[in-house]
What we know:
α2 crosses α10 (306-325), α6 (164-185) packs across α7 and α8 packs across α9. With 368 residues, the protein is an alpha/beta fold. The strands form two sheets. It has a seven-stranded mixed β-sheet, with helices on both faces. The protein has a four-stranded parallel β-sheet with strand order 7-8-6-9, with helices on both faces. The protein folds into two domains: 3-162 and 304-346, 3-Layer(aba) Sandwich (Rossmann fold), CATH 3.40.50.450; 166-297, Rossmann fold. 42% of the residues lie in helices and 16% in strands. The model has no long low-confidence stretch (mean pLDDT 90). It has helices at 3-21, 39-54, 65-70, 105-116, 127-140, 164-185, 200-209, 223-235, 274-286, 306-325, 356-366; strands at 26-31, 57-61, 73-76, 120-125, 144-148, 188-193, 213-215, 241-246, 290-294, 330-335, 338-343.
Amino acid sequence: MSLESDVECCKRLQWRLRLVVSPFVRVGVLTGGGDCPGLNAVLRAVVRKGERYYGDEIVGFRDAWDGVMDRRTTPLTIETMRGLLPRGGTVLGTRRGSPFDRPEGVDQVEATMSDMGIDGLIVIGGNGSLSVANKLYTERGIPIVGIPKTIDNDIEGTEVTFGFNTAVQIATDAIDRLHTTAESHDRVMVVEVMGRHSGWIATHAGIAGGATVVMIPERPFNIEEVCDRITRRHQRGRFASIVVVAEGALPLPGTIEVADREVDQFGHIQLGGIGALVAQEIRARTGFETRPVLLGHVQRGGTPTAADRVLSTRFGVEAIDAVHRGAWGQMVALQADRIVEVPLSQVAGRTRQLDLSLFDDVAQVFFA
């Protein structure tokens, strides 16, 4: 065993011993990345189990890692969390970014935890936030438990993330409404939904909403095949079609000219606009009146569904339990309808793509 491994083991042992000696802990919580329905339900569950069962003090850090580095906090108690179960967004505020983006950022995180007596952090976030959490844990030994959060449902190690069910329901509701206006005006409607690297939302909403075609990042699409399907549908007397396209979907090379996309300050390609491009191509190639519809951030907002409230609550309860087990460097996850722990090292830097059997064996039966 290396010296680095020995040091890491000692750090873990120190934290576990402290929790055995003193079951009361002071836990910091932050929400990172994009907002997501169910975040407040997670916070509520962490606070309820932590305060009532363990006697913990929960400290909320505002605006993700910036709040930890700059010591912007808000107390989270059972009283302050009342009424927040159905509320969308996050009362802590959220943003992207990392302590590694600042020259002294990691040192500031450690100083904050030491000076404020924070025994451990619960990090609620997506791929970026959980990758940062893993790096802080493995490189600096900072005690962290992760909770997976993204409407895209693309985090490894868990079968589903909270927020996904709500996003699919919102997209499906929109598609249902678009069917009637498309039929009334004899139009093709191209609906762009979220999904940077995975087609979970597009495929589920496409199946649930009865779409004619679905385009996903995992499968580059052939615009000629898409237009042929729509044309055959109209020839059979169906005078309206719904095309669902994930924001990260791309055409087969050489079939459609796609403009170079800008990159934001975090290195992410700026997506959005593929729906308008697809609508333009369908209109030009078929002659059918075609309209693009960008759902955008409406998928993130509003009240979480019952399924997302339940999953968020289960994640929050399990996360505070993991803190008291000293399960640092772990992420709570759903597997076979059970909440389990998965090492953050198995999650960081990875993307869970769509199960293509769902797309090929189920969705394609109806996409015609």
